[in-house]
Amino acid sequence: MKYDVIIVGAGVAGLYAAMHIPKSKNVLIINKRETFKCNSFYAQGGIALAIDAEDIPCHIQDTLDAGAGLCSEEAVRVLSESSRAIIDDLIERGFEFDRDPSGNLLYTKEAAHSKERILHAGGDATGRYMHYFLLQQNPHPMLTDARVVDLLIKDGECYGVTVLDHRESRNIYADNIILASGGVGSLYEFHTNAPCISADMQGLCVMKGIELNDMEMMQFHPTVFVDSDSAQKLLLTEALRGEGATVEDENGRRFLFDYDERGELASRDIVSKAIYDHNKKTKMQTYLSLKNFDHVYFTKRFPNLYKSLQLLGYDVPKQRVPISPAFHYAIGGIKTDVNGAVPSVKSLYAIGEVASTKVHGANRLASNSLLEGLVFGKRAVEHLLKTKSSKKELRFEVGNEIMSLKEDKEKKNLLRRIMWENVSIVRTKKGLEQALHQINALLNEKIGKLLKFRLLTAREIVLGALARDESIGVHFIQKDDND
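The structure assignment produced for this chain is given below.
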């Protein structure tokens, strides 16, 4: 059976793209695990937009400023100019954003934004609400618990994918393929991502010679609850600091102003590095203080965080919470144009966190990620629908590679430690070279294909970091002690 479109991934980007493909088209969505196991589901903060035509230049400038000169101005302009229509489309379809008592949309402010322009749903559950809504709206079939392990490419054109479905590999063909598989969270020892976000598609693209872009740009979220045993940590949304939460050390001192005059409202890269540096210098634990919040307001505005932290034994907002940065978002990814098309391969698109449109530059502006997935998901569909396909019929042999070995789990954990210790918030050339040596050594061992995906992606991150000598945005190079 041949499909018109295959979408790999069922997060917000993939589902919104699917929504814009007519029911008359033959579409298949492929999802690696349960539908809620995606980064979209965990997005707390909200979705940014240019509120009106007058706000577009400001939203563009805030995004460019956060991106530290590495954004594509064209991509940022597309993002901002499309934002209002995207939000209106969701509302017209029945999605409900939070509103004030008078029924007006409730806009809030987050770090590095010049005004209140963030919309939320369910208080601190915007991603969860939006993901559930898009799942309900989805008109197309979905293949779950199946992972893509190969792209069927010949002569610069993609003809379909190979899926691992119940331990058996088989080929599925389509006129167009959209990759919306998410980021790289499981490469790091501590992260805020869904557990199954494991950099498969990025590594597969390396194997296929498809260009990745800005892979050294990995964003760490500064306010993450640290006292838990799992690799996935509880994110404490940017909106908390935007609405009055403060960062302090054990003595109650708000040290962020030593690093940036905006304090808690500085961009994520600055706050993360400041916490890292202060902790290293003082050997103190860092805390997020919520005492500026009224108790009733806090329970209504952040209901899920309130419940989670209460269950963990914290009397919030009265009691402060220990925090530390953790990996959060892959800014770099598969190189695309502003239509989500992969330039080097016909019929192949990438959208959302797996892609690099260069809209985020060197540091993603808070709450621009959901917006990016929606905007470029829609644009990818519009582009493929108007692009006539004269693709000839081809059939590919199903590969017989070993997907995993018993020893791979221990090597995955080693890779997580390597990435956390040497390729995270603060990097040194010596540490990066050590990481590269270790990753290359693992690649030379007998490993399964799934681990190879992770290692190839990790190596691209390290190589990108080594190639960029100057610190910029989330990429911070510290001189080695003997320099």
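Interim note for the steering committee: The CA atoms of residues 9 and 440 lie 29 Å apart. The two ends are 60 Å apart (CA to CA).
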